[in-house]
C-alpha cells in the first residue's frame, strides 16, 4: 500500500508550485482529487476564482484519474486532447476540490469527467475531456 | 485615444499577478490579446505548458474581447459560462499570445473564439466559449 | 397526474417525425428521456449510429429536462446555446435511450448533462450543454 | 480530376437518406461541404432548424474534411471522438451549408472546425471536434 508521501503530489511542477494545488492519487475509488485553498492570489477581476484556475484543477484531477487506470502511481503520463468546462457557480476563498471520473474509452484515448466542489459540496464547475496516453517511445 | 497604460492591463488581479500574463485591449481590430512569457514556472510534468495556463490565456483574451464589444476600456465585466479547449500542439518556454474573436451572439450572451500561438505563429490551442454580460445590478 | 398521452411526446415536429424518436417527460425524477429504435435508417458510413442522431437525442433529452424544471408539461421552450458531445462507444441497431440531468444554473441559463445508453446500459455518448429559457416576449 | 458524380456524395447511408443532405468533397481547398435544403421536416418545436440536424451537418463536413487530408476521395473513414457546437443563430427553411477546416493534429487525431451558414452567409452554428482515423485493421 503506498504511503501518503507517495499518493499526495505537491509542488512537483512549476505550474503546480505556482498555483499551490495538491494532487491526491491515493483514493481506493481510483479517482484522483486536486485540492486548492483559494486565496486572493487566485481571484479574477470580479473577486471570484479565475476560470483558468478552475480549469487547471479539473484538468489535473482528470489527467491523474486517467493515469490511475494504468497503475496506482497516478504518474503515467496522459495528454489533454480536448477539454470542455461549464462554470456552474462562482467560487470564493476557501478550500475547493476537483474529482475525476472515467466515463469511457479504450487503449489510447480515455474520456474523463471532473467536478469541482467547495467545502459545502456545491458544484462550482464541471468538465469533460479527452485524454491520450503518451506513447512510451515519446518519453 | 487611450494611452498604452490604459490599454495594457498588468497585475490587475491576484490570478494575473500569479501567472504573469499581460492583457492588451488596445488593438484597433477590437480583439484583445493575452500574452505570457512561458518559463519553467508554467510547465507541467511533461515539460510543456500546463493546459490550465493555456486555458487562462484563452479565457482572458476571449472575456476581454467580449468587453471590447461594449466599450474601448476592455473592462466591462463578462462571465465565462462555458469554455471548450482543443490542445493542438505542446508549448515550450518563450513568448505566446492568445487572441479573441467574437463569432456571434446578442445582448446578453456572446460567443467568443480564441487562438493561442507561439512566436512562429504555430497554433498551440484553440477555444470557443459562451460569455455572459454581468448585469449591472449585480456589480 | 398527467396521462401517458401527455407525457409521451411523439411526432410533434418535423425533425422528430423524420428521426422517429419518442420524448418521455413523465418520470417522477424530472429527467426527460429520449428514445429511439436504431434501424439502418440511422447508420453512418461505418455501419454504426450517425453521431448527428446521437446528438439529436442527447439535445432533446437535455432540452426537455430543462423544461421540466419549470413545470410538468416538459414543453416550456428552452434553446440550446452550446453543446459538447463525447462519442464513447459505437451504437448498433436496437433500442437506445438518452436521459437528461440538470447540473446547475439560474433563472435564465441552465447547465444540463445527458447520457445515451443502449439496452444493456452501456454508455454510448455523453453530453453537457447550456440551455436558455426562451423569453416569453419572443413567443 | 474526379468527376462531379465522384465528389458529390448523396444518399450513401441511411442517415444521409433520412435527412437529405449532400456531401461535397470536390473543392480544391480540401474543405468538405455539407448542404441541406431546410424544410419543415427539419424544424424543432420552436419552428427553427433542430440543433441535432445542425450538428449532423457540422459533423459530416468536419469528418469528410478529415478524410480529405488523406486522399481526394473524401471517403477514408474517421470517427468523431468529441464535438463542441455553439448555436449562434436560428436557421429557417432554405439552403444551408456547413464547411470543415482542419486546425491541427497529427497522424491519428485531427482537430477539425466547421461553420454552418445560410445563403446570406450568416453564421448559424460553429463547431470544433476531435476526429480519429479508423485503424485499417478495424475495417
Summary, kept brief:
The structure is a homotetramer of 139-residue chains. Chain A is an alpha+beta fold. The first copy, chain A, contains three helices and seven strands, in the order H-E-H-E-E-H-E-E-E-E.
Task: Please provide the ordered H/E string of secondary-structure elements of chain A.
Answer: HEHEEHEEEE
State the domain count of chain A: 1
User: Largest chain interface and its two residue counts?
Assistant: C-D, 37 and 36 residues
Count the DSSP helices of chain A. Answer: 3
- In angstroms, what is the radius of gyration of chain A? 14 Å
The total beta strand count of chain A reads 7
Identify the overall geometry of chain A: globular
Strand portion of chain A, in percent?
35-45%
* CATH architectural type of chain A: Roll
* Quaternary form: homotetramer
Largest sheet of chain A: 7 strands, antiparallel
Segments of chain A where pLDDT lies below 50 for 5+ residues? none
Question: Quick one: CATH class of chain A?
Answer: Alpha Beta
**Helix percent band of chain A:** 10-25%
Helix-strand category of chain A: alpha+beta
Q: In the CATH hierarchy, what is the superfamily of chain A?
A: Hotdog Thioesterase
CATH topology of chain A: Thiol Ester Dehydrase, Chain A
The whole-number mean of residue pLDDT values of chain A reads 90
Span of the ends, CA to CA of chain A: 27 Å
Amino acid at each position: 500500500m503506498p504511503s501518503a508521501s507517495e499518493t499526495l503530489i505537491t509542488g512537483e511542477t512549476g505550474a503546480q508550485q505556482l498555483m499551490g494545488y495538491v494532487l491526491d492519487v491515493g483514493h481506493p475509488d481510483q479517482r484522483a482529487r486536486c485540492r486548492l485553498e483559494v486565496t486572493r492570489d487566485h481571484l479574477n477581476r470580479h473577486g471570484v476564482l479565475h476560470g483558468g484556475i478552475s480549469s487547471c484543477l479539473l484538468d489535473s484531477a482528470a489527467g491523474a484519474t486517467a493515469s490511475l487506470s494504468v497503475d496506482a502511481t497516478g504518474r503515467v503520463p496522459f495528454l489533454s486532447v480536448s477539454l470542455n468546462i461549464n462554470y456552474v457557480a462562482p467560487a470564493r476563498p476557501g478550500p475547493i476540490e476537483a474529482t475525476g471520473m472515467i466515463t469511457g474509452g479504450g487503449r489510447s484515448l480515455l474520456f474523463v469527467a471532473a467536478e469541482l466542489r467547495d467545502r459545502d459540496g456545491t458544484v462550482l464547475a464541471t468538465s469533460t475531456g479527452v485524454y491520450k496516453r503518451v506513447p512510451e517511445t515519446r518519453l
